[in-house]
Predict the structure.
Amino acid sequence: MSREAILDAAEAILRDEGYAAVSSRKVAAVAGLKSKLVHYYFKTMDELFLALLRRVEEQHFAELRKATASGEPLRALWHLSTDPTVPKLHKEFVALATHHEQLRQEIARSAQRTRQVYAAAAESALIVAGLSTSMFPPVAIGMMLDGISRVLSTDKILGLDSGHADAIALVETLLNRLSVSRCEETTDAQQQI
Amino acid sequence: MSREAILDAAEAILRDEGYAAVSSRKVAAVAGLKSKLVHYYFKTMDELFLALLRRVEEQHFAELRKATASGEPLRALWHLSTDPTVPKLHKEFVALATHHEQLRQEIARSAQRTRQVYAAAAESALIVAGLSTSMFPPVAIGMMLDGISRVLSTDKILGLDSGHADAIALVETLLNRLSVSRCEETTDAQQQI
DNA sequence: GTCTATAGGCCGATAGAC
DNA sequence: GTCTATCGGCCTATAGAC
């Protein structure tokens, strides 16, 4: 279907060249269509961006659902967030959202939902580990995981990887503590590292 | 001086409207000059972006030096990284760097230097607190601080603030442990919260 | 250093044929 | 649904006057 081909092309250009390069002409060229057709399916370019964002979000939440259905939701979410393909698109959409109100609202809603998923996973992990959720607010744990994965992905885009092994090891240590231990077993968990 | 006025204007547009909006015409208009003058000082727009990046980096490293000269470098760096004005420019430059090799190299070098500053601050804080730097790699601690401040700033751009108070409180808790305590005093530090 | 003028290109969006 | 053709606009960069 042409509509999907247009979205595929737009996604590729957005990922590879940035939002400024996503023009109706270039999208059409990549999709092997004529530019008029882009305007046939999407009255404006803003509409195209919004449709693409929604498609990306659907895939994203489908993956979140799979992760939360696994035995260790928090660890599954962490591994999901270090997938290198997602953050590049995400960065472009956030940059676009800065000066596009409708996209801003859409992406804010999505970020909010994602945060709740992470917080819920962190909360159940904390409870299982017998740790205080008031000392370690689940939402804050989720934000830390999110944050460190963003640093890792931005670094990768810039061609840096110094400190990455240490950071990943630290996160794994903390995840192990949450999944393996209750308070009393913390020392054992530490010795695993 | 016209050159500085041009850079000021470019910086304002980059911050407020994104890199796609930084054109020689618009820069000139904001600076109250004619567009030809922009090309007189900067042969190409790429040159302008590079010059602006270098100016921003100089200010950034001046602030880093001030922070590391303070009594609590790690805490000073944390407060610096939550300053809302810096990350918006930073995001735009990273987005630009994705498809501009010279900017990519420049910003990668700068990110690398910044990381070392954070890691050094984290290392001395860990040593003062009597904590193992092999269990908690300083560079990873720095990356966590960096990451959480990025999540906070991205959220702010999107108009979100749920979980922010919790995340900031958690970071402050951890910073307090590092600055106040040695191992034995951890319990006291926790009770302060 | 600062200006006017302009070449040459890509852009979004539309009109209207088939 | 798909096409050709085109308008009007903004862009970078340059030539050349003062």
